[in-house]
Amino acid sequence: xxxxxxxxxxxxxxxxxxxxxxxxxxxxxxxxxxxxxxxxxxxxxxxxxxxxxxxxxxxxxxxxxxxxxxxxxxxxxxxxxxxxxxxxxxxxxxxxxxxxxxxxxxxxxxxxxxxxxxxxxxxxxxxxxxxxxxxxxxxxxxxxxxxxxxxxxxxxxxxxxxxxxxxxxxxxxxxxxxxxxxxxxxxxxxxxxxxxxxxxxxxxxxxxxxxxxxxxxxxxxxxxxxxxxxxxxxxxxxxxxxxxxxxxxxxxxxxxxxxxxxxxxxxxxxxxxxxxxxxxxxxxxxxxxxxxxxxxx
Length: 297
Known about the structure:
Distance between the termini: 51 Å
Largest sheet: 5 strands, parallel
Shape: globular
Strand order of the largest sheet: 2-1-3-4-5
Structural class: alpha/beta
CATH topology of the largest domain: Alpha-Beta Plaits
């Protein structure tokens, strides 16, 4: 695997070095530049896999840098994550409209920044077919599927609730459970279920955005945290995810079993942001249980 090259673009040298040091400790090759033109020049040379980009730069602002990158076919595929003090609702929306993979307001949380980098590079690797798989952190990673684990999901959900309160964006949490697995051949049930969970994890990655949090929640269940997504959009996502999982299982020629898929959705708006992560997860679980009851005779 070649070195993964991350460029930090920030006019504050001290803040840039904090990010670069954390990235290097994580195993990435990191360097910093301090102007928008320097960032564009470096990206044009093909030596950048991901950009951490401030908005307030001394020449071009970060939004213009992102616009130019995404307008050029040779650099459009480079993931851009804004890390900036410009954290208004309008700024965040503008960043995502320009094609950013993430938007992080300063003061930043280093583990959160690293998680965003990991997620964006995972998506880029799958899209480009390159071996630029990010470094895994076993503390927050499920060993079987390679997804984030329940601990990480719960911590991120609490962080996103703070963002809902601050920026008035909705968030949603989707639970998807694989249930009623019935082998029809002589395969070991445990082996079949491990294969099922692995294939389902790949399918969920395929339908999720780079900044969504896809996690294995427990032995039989996945959880997906969807920032900036309200209830109706989350329901659409849940159905698309179930369809993708079913499609992937058919494509894998795993027809020696029956499996049922159920989902539950919980969403939070700014008016409801006083709730806790546990309450959101409980609401999603309650809806999932209700859907199971409705589906069964």
